[in-house]
Amino acid sequence: MQKLIRPTYPTEFSMGLLLLVFIISFLLSHQIFEVPFSGLGQNQHVYFGMLLVAIAVIIMLLIICEEILFPIKIREVKGGVIFKNHRRKLKTQLLIYCIIPAIFCFIYFEYDVNHLRFIIWATVCMVSPVLGKIASGINNYNDFLELTNEKIEFKDNEKEGCFEIKNIQSIIFIKDERNIIHKIQLKPKNSDHVTIDLDEMELDAFYDSINKFIITHYQHLLK
């Protein structure tokens, strides 16, 4: 069972933003083609290329601003919740991302383009989603944090662990310069401190929910 903690943006806002970006991208994308803006009327086939570029920009935006399509949810389990990177979301992002290089390959081979401007547009549209969301999603594909009444279990790229609540002596929140929790330090009984690096697990969207759950369920352990 999943619990919605942050819905997608309102439909009117999302559609308005996408439409605005689409129009601006369509008008500016004529720079890619070796046809002056005043000459588009005599080269109407270029409009289709401009349309494709605008679509590529929209796809880039949908991946970067992922909350337009994907609400933030946590999965509920017996006695608690699991916070993790949504694999279905990542697979969908990868699938629609493949459209972007396909569009620019088609434009390159079908139109006369200004190579410098083409490279700039193609680079921005193809690299931004990878750096912004996709690479992080792949890197943290198996990471998760599970909080229940009986245990705290986690996995990141470097370490993993499972600790029963009865064997934990204390829990400490580590905050960043914005006073936002980005790490959790556990002190098991008869063992060294263990740090859970939330900031390296793509769990930013869940910080508030993690904070509330720990305060509610582990208040007696907080230091």
Count of runs of 4 or more consecutive helical residues: 6
Number of discrete domains: 2
Strand segment count? 9
Radius of gyration: 23 Å
Helix-strand pattern: EHHEEHHHEEEEEEH
- Can you give the mean pLDDT? 87
The rounded distance between the terminal residues' Cα atoms is 32 Å
Which structural class best describes the helix and strand composition?
Answer: alpha+beta
Major sheet characteristics: 6 strands, antiparallel
Strand arrangement, major sheet: 1-2-3-4-5-6
Layout of helices and strands:
Layout: E1 2-6, H1 11-28, H2 45-64, E2 72-77, E3 80-84, H3 87-97, H4 99-110, H5 115-139, E4 144-148, E5 151-155, E6 160-164, E7 168-175, E8 181-188, E9 194-197, H6 207-217
Antiparallel strand pairs: 1-2, 2-3, 3-4, 4-5, 5-6, 7-8, 8-9
Provide a descriptive summary of the structure in words.
The chain is an alpha+beta fold. It has two domains: 2-139, no CATH class; 149-221, Roll (PH-domain like), CATH 2.30.29. 43% of the residues lie in helices and 23% in strands. It is built from six helices and nine strands, in the order E-H-H-E-E-H-H-H-E-E-E-E-E-E-H. It has helices at residues 11-28, 45-64, 87-97, 99-110, 115-139, 207-217, and strands at residues 2-6, 72-77, 80-84, 144-148, 151-155, 160-164, 168-175, 181-188, 194-197. The chain has a six-stranded antiparallel beta sheet with strand order 1-2-3-4-5-6, with helices on one face. A hairpin with a 5-residue loop joins strand 7 (168-175) and strand 8 (181-188). The longest helix has 25 residues, at 115-139. The two termini are 32 Å apart.
